[in-house]
Design brief:
Layout lengths: L3 H9 L3 E2 L1 H25 L9 H18 L5 H15 L2 H17 L6 E2 H18 L8 H17 L4 H17 L6 H6 L4 H18 L22 E8 L5 H9 L2 E9 L2 E8 L2 H9 L3 E9 L13 E9 L2 H9 L3 E4 L7 H9 L3 E8 L2 H13 L4 E4 L5 H14 L6 H10 L1 E8 L2 E5 L8 E3 L2 H12 L6 E6 L7 H10 L4 E6 L7 E5 L1
Parallel strand pairs: 7-8, 7-9, 9-10, 14-15
Antiparallel strand pairs: 1-2, 3-5, 3-6, 4-5, 11-12, 11-16, 12-13, 14-16
Helix pairs in contact: 1-2, 2-3, 2-4, 2-10, 3-4, 3-5, 4-5, 5-6, 6-7, 6-8, 7-8, 7-10, 8-10, 18-19
Length: 521
């Protein structure tokens, strides 16, 4: 009997995708966005150079995949709905909101069926095109919506010619890539900077990943070498992202009032929830306006003039979390969850400055989540220096373990998971890091009883490290990918072939080191 990966390989080339193939296609899309996210961040210049388009797309797609995976076993319609709901809750920025509408269109199109064929995908793309444009107060060509329309239009003649799902995806992907190349024709700022639109490129990456997955070939688009931009963005004001719970409120009225307060306004409704995005000079006024219409479920405000945004506590709390991490994207992910987060990588704040900022927080108790041995030492020193709030430091010295705790926050939809639950999970984790030393890869911080793991081939070192951590008996594995690893496809395939039962959570932290951080549970 074929194993799971072999069944998926057969199904993905078939005229239809069911639940298993859809989940695998989502994973392929997340991988593509993860590998390109840093390049997309650096590429972004419109509507403002806020350096997070790739990150927004990645975190939205990852949320969709996690939501779908949590619903696995219940059929495609339920899995697609779970992906859409999760994407809406996680969506940030223009790009994230539009991508959430792509997943919403898919969910609505397969709502009464449990397979996805060429005709269904063509209908979903047409619906996504309409939903995305409805979400924007002032649709601008040369962006994601241009690529989405090109994809939807390419699907129709392909369908009329009898294309199967893999062939239709190829035609759609080709049209999307061509549309991206034309984005500078629409936007002068793209021509001036000599770039294409970042969000448009991100959507093309997703469609390219799906086309490649369906045909069993490598994607056309490969990630360029790039380091995460650290220059100060040239945007002004704040990027406001709100999830608003409403009952019977007029979406058009909300949109009209927000339009008087800012730019780049997007309002998307799904039953009782509104996902809202805008750029505003006075974000507090925007929040006060929204409070007239409903309950603020979550609020994240990014200062467009800062390179390392932090969550500021606007009201007192009994308890809060603080993430210290050298992984820029973990810092952003924490920020998206409403968690205090401080980057400790290239531009780490001085310890005394950080202690002063913590002492000024309106919070009684602060739990610190370190992401490395250095951060753990920094956190312990802060606990000695700061008298109020009361600080407690979790025993974390690993990026992967730090991410596991953050994912608990996302699953529970609370920024402060129960302490006993966190301690229980930490107690089950087995962690290690893989670093590059001269010409060799080496696994460090393994169990003291483990043999030394090092070698010239990263795949070999990774598999041996996971074996030493007990992958055979583990259920899940979290891997945080650093900037030294441009591609993970071979690593993922090797893990799946060796331990097909293991659920692997890949996360692109884009930290300088370690190259890979591992945690098994």
């Amino acid at each position: 009997m074929p194993n799971g990966s072999e069944r998926t390989d057969v199904e993905r080339r078939s005229p239809v995708w069911r639940e298993e193939s859809f989940l695998a296609a989502l994973e392929a899309a997340v991988t593509a966005l993860g590998e390109h996210a840093a390049a997309l961040d650096a590429l972004n210049v419109f509507p403002v150079a806020d350096r997070d388009t790739g990150t927004n797309l990645l975190l939205t797609a990852q949320a969709a995949w996690r939501g779908a995976r949590a619903a696995a076993g219940s059929g495609l319609r339920t899995v697609a709905r779970a992906a859409a709901d999760a994407a809406l809750r996680a969506a940030h920025g223009n790009s994230g909101v539009i991508l959430s509408q792509f997943f919403r269109a898919l969910a609505e199109t397969v709502a009464d069926r449990d397979d996805l064929d060429a005709a269904t995908l063509a209908s979903a793309l047409d619906r996504a095109d309409r939903l995305a444009r409805q979400a924007l107060l002032q649709p601008v060509e040369g962006t994601m919506i241009t690529v989405l329309r090109a994809a939807a239009e390419a699907a129709q003649p392909a369908l009329a010619e009898g294309a199967t799902l893999p062939e239709l995806l190829r035609r759609v992907s080709d049209a999307a890539i061509e549309a991206v190349a034309r984005t500078p024709e629409y936007l002068p700022i793209l021509r001036e900077r000599g770039v294409v639109d970042s969000g448009a490129q991100g959507l093309a990456l997703l469609l390219d990943a799906w086309a490649a997955f369906a045909r069993g070939v490598p994607p056309q688009l490969q990630p360029p070498p790039v380091t995460l931009a650290v220059s100060v963005p040239d945007g002004q004001g704040a990027c406001v992202n709100v999830l608003l719970e409403v009952s019977g409120s007029d979406t058009a009225q909300i949109t009209e009032e927000l339009a008087r307060l800012g730019e780049s306004v997007e309002v998307v409704r799904d039953t009782h929830l509104l996902r809202i995005h805008l750029h505003a000079e006075n974000p507090e006024q925007a929040l006060r306006t929204l409070q007239r219409f409903g309950h603020l479920v979550s609020v994240v405000i990014d200062d467009l003039s800062l390179s390392s945004p932090r969550v500021q506590l606007s009201e007192p709390r009994a308890h809060a979390l603080l993430v210290l991490s050298p992984a820029p994207r973990i810092v952003t992910f924490a920020h998206r969850l409403g968690v205090l987060a401080v980057a400790t990588g290239r531009e780490a704040a001085a310890l005394d400055t950080l202690a002063q900022e913590i002492a000024a927080l309106p919070v009684e108790r602060l739990t610190i989540l370190p992401g490395s041995p250095e951060d753990w030492q920094r956190a312990c020193e802060l606990a000695r220096q700061v008298e109020h709030p009361r600080l407690e430091v979790l025993p974390l010295q690993s990026l992967a373990a730090q991410l596991v705790v953050l994912l608990l926050s996302q699953v529970d939809e609370e920024p402060e998971p129960a302490t006993d639950t966190v301690q229980e999970v930490i107690g089950r984790l087995r962690t290690a890091d893989i670093v590059r030393e001269q010409a060799l890869w080496q696994a460090i911080r393994l169990d003291a009883a483990s043999e030394r793991v090092r070698g010239e081939e990263l795949v070999d070192v990774l598999l041996r490290a996971l074996d030493a951590l007990g992958a055979e008996a583990a259920e899940s594995c979290t891997i945080v990918v650093g900037e030294a690893i441009p591609l993970v496809a071979l690593l993922r395939e090797a893990i799946t072939a060796r331990w097909p039962h293991l659920t692997v959570e890949w996360f692109w932290g884009h930290q300088p080191a370690p190259a890979l951080s591992l945690a098994l549970e």
